[in-house]
């Protein structure tokens, strides 16, 4: 993927730009006008720092300690102490692409000129990203309100030259040592800055945008898998006709049905049982209703993308510096809008995976697979075929159902009841990442199984598009035969889902899928 420079501060950050920086290492630059706005807001904060009236985050403590007025000589220590104390994460390290995403999104908010940080502080975030340094952030620590506090604090700690970072090659280093090696100076935080660096929904938003990028690929792949199952199980494509789908005008359903028609076009297998002699009146729901389920998931993704777009345009901090110079407290750091759609996507993923597993299972049952061997085995009884591949799918689908339980309906009070309602959006995002991976694996097993079934339908030939998928798989995985070690074949299929090989093979035949 092209990793051209991403300019921050010219307007809302584009989702594609965030993915380019987070996942593919694109460089970052702050727009010159944005630098002017950052400096202008900093002037406001410096004025308040010398005012007699206390201002939250500038000359007071934080959270439940906001009633304490902090003397000027202690304010630099106040900001350092805030970051150090809030960098309290625990558990496994968070993936580098997530940390890069939340670092970029915090920079995007700093570049709005609404936070009051120094120009050098904003530039330090760009420098960290461009050097390929990823602060060590831990799994647990965010309640998704007052921002993703602990994760963002670990990033702020790194720009202060404290804590640990990983180099682009994964090497773990002390932050101070790594900054020096890349010619970067640690930041000395001044009034308001520590607060500005940790108050945002950046972690959960970053994971949402990454998931949306993955789901664009996976839902198209789900349509490919469904088409292969319809074909391999001697199903009909008539139910996917555009006029039938238009009777229920959901845009996602129409797109999924169009993809199924395109992928099944010119299939000799489908044509072989299309005549009046065919007594198959209608297919099982898992085949016939694929556009309805995949389409509902698409519409859910579209709604989530709308929310993500609004959030990418936001300036989230507390307090904020308004264009007229006022500095006001607010609650924009609450993660509810993001948390809800993160949970909604996990529900949709569980259902798409569930219908995929049902389609796969039909291949394996002689009562339902229309003339294929039990479990697609070479010699059923001696061989087990894909019996346990379906078990693997079933185990993942069961896990996906547990991951679909919403995190955003939970709340737990914190900070001596000052922060008495929280979003748990970070938790929703963490489980969504697991769900995306699970869906990828379930679809890979369906395609692996459907490809074997298409082989077994010979001499009838599949559609050009599904044949292209089978050809990519067969470059590494042999066709039907006696039982082999199945796990490596599943993992190879997973890789072909993940790297878009299956999708690219189909689109080379059909053109871009919807």
Automatic annotation (TrEMBL):
Q: Which GO terms describe its cellular component?
A: cytoplasm
**Localization, UniProt:** Cytoplasm
Reaction it catalyzes: L-histidine = trans-urocanate + NH4(+)
Q: Which domain of life is it from?
A: Bacteria
Please provide, alphabetically and separated by semicolons, the GO molecular function terms listed in this UniProt record. Answer: histidine ammonia-lyase activity
Q: What class of enzyme is it?
A: lyase
Its UniProt pathway annotation is:
Amino-acid degradation; L-histidine degradation into L-glutamate; N-formimidoyl-L-glutamate from L-histidine: step 1/3
User: What transmembrane ranges does the database entry give?
Assistant: none
* Broad class of the protein's primary localization: cytoplasm
| PROSITE patterns per UniProt | PAL_HISTIDASE (PS00488)
Q: Which UniProt keywords apply?
A: Histidine metabolism, Lyase
The keyword Lyase is assigned to this record: yes
Name of protein: Histidine ammonia-lyase
Supply the source organism for this entry: Kribbella flavida (strain DSM 17836 / JCM 10339 / NBRC 14399)
